[in-house]
Amino acid sequence: MTSTFGRRRAALALSICLSLSSAAGAQTAPAKIKVGFMLPYSGTYAALGTAIENGFRLQVQEQGGRFGGREVEYVRVDDESDPSKAVDNVGKLIKRDQVDVIVGTVHSGVAMAMARAAKESGTLLVIPNAGADAITGPMCAPNIFRTSFSNWQPAYTMGTVVGQRGHRKVVTVTWKYAAGDESVKGFAEGLQKSGGEVVKDLTVPFPNAEFQALLTEIAAAKPDAVYAFFAGAGAVKFVKDYAAAGLGKTIPLYGPGFLTDGTLEAQGESAQGMFTTLHYADALGTPRDDAFRLAYAKTWKLQPDVYAVQGYDAAQALAVGFKAVGGDASKRRELIAAMEAARIDSPRGAFVFSKAHNPVQDVYLRRVDGNVNKSQGVAIKALADPARGCRMPAAS
Ligand code: BEZ
To answer: How many angstroms is it from 257 CA to the middle of ligand 1?
Structure first.
């Protein structure tokens, strides 16, 4: 017969065994890869933030929920497209959540603060939209990649197109912040090269959508054409107001593709026939784009747009990097080298990263037809941002 003491010893031995084996189990379970989304989930760019996250999650799902064999987990911060909150918000992801990689954001002013924080802390940052030229210019860094565009790329292209279409005197109109300023500057550079000039720059504070005073000024200036940078809910309102003021009949409205991307259902008749330039067009008709659009529509019950593509490609780039290191984020140099060498098989068409970590990509001329930004062909092939001021240090 077993004594009480004997039973206790056996129970103790069993409990030690169980706790040792569960500790061993915990040690061998590979750590998850923590992705921190810092995106706008409220305000004028809310739909853009959601599309980016949807695109990213779709690509991770296609990878079986894993990067380099490790499960991917998410934390999210709503940056509200507010630069004054950006330092606090990015600090939450870096210090509190200790993420392996930050994915964000949409607004150039917020992204500048994120890039500064990423440079200081060494945290890997993938930008799935914000085009701030400086981030892949003087601020370029080994741990910062962008899967979208520089503000210069679509704007410069539109400048050349508007000049080629014979417009000579053009008025620009934009929100007054980095993205708008850089978009107008890039446009003016392209326009000048093809024989036109900007005769007036009009601005309104971000995210103000009261455009009547600007429209009155445009009518009075009687330019050959107008170039506008707005996106999201602001783009919907501007294009509708422009048409309602009757300006579209006499003064053609152009812009980078953000003016009509993800917005056409809301813009309706007011956007029909508009020409824009962007590194994506709806329904390109390639097998890669068709597969992406079908998967996105099935998963999210929504049509994708350029923001969804950029989020999807952020995850594609990270998948390449983490695969090269078997999911081990501490092997940074190898991870970065793999991303630098990657050829991203994007729905927009394949692209590579420049030395400054910005996509080298085709920019399409598009025309609005119903609810589609239809490609009219490639306006500039394999366009690289000039990356003025970038001196890329070696990865550490
Ligand atoms: C930007 O702030 O860089 C931006 C925002 C929306 C669309 C395009 C660019």
So the answer is: 11
> Do 33-149+283-360 and 152-278 fold alike per CATH?
yes
CATH number of 152-278: 3.40.50.2300
Multiple choice CATH, 33-149+283-360, 3.40.50.2300, 3.10.270.10, 1.10.238.10, 1.10.760.10? 3.40.50.2300
Q: Phi and psi of 125, rounded to 5°?
A: -130, 125
235 falls in which pLDDT band (50, 70, 90)?
A: very high
By alpha-carbon position, which residue is closest to atom 3 of ligand 1?
Answer: 130
12-16, 68-72, 333-337: least confident range: 12-16
363 lines ligand 1 (CB under 6 A): no
* Dihedral angle over CA of 170, 175, 178, 184, nearest 10: -10
Give the CA count within 13 Å in the CB-facing half-sphere of 82.
Answer: 11
Question: What are the beta bridge partners of residue 200?
Answer: 171
pLDDT tens per residue across span 149-171: 999 999 999 999 999 999 999 99
Q: Does 107 contact ligand 1 (Cβ within 6 A)?
A: yes
Q: What is the DSSP letter of 148?
A: S
Sign of CA dihedral 314, 320, 324, 328: positive
Give 260 Cα–ligand 1 centroid separation in angstroms.
Answer: 13
- Does residue 177 line the site of ligand 1, with CB under 6 A? no
The answer to whether 105 touches 38, Cβ cutoff 8 Å, is yes
| Residue to probe by mutation, ligand 1, list 44, 48, 129, most atoms within 8 Å of CB | 129
What's the pTM? 0.93
- Domains of the chain, by residue range, sit at 33-149+283-360, 152-278
* DSSP assigned state of 236: H
Does the CA dihedral 166-170-175-177 come out positive or negative? positive
**7 Cα to the center of ligand 1, angstroms:** 69
Q: What is the C-alpha R_g of the chain?
A: 24
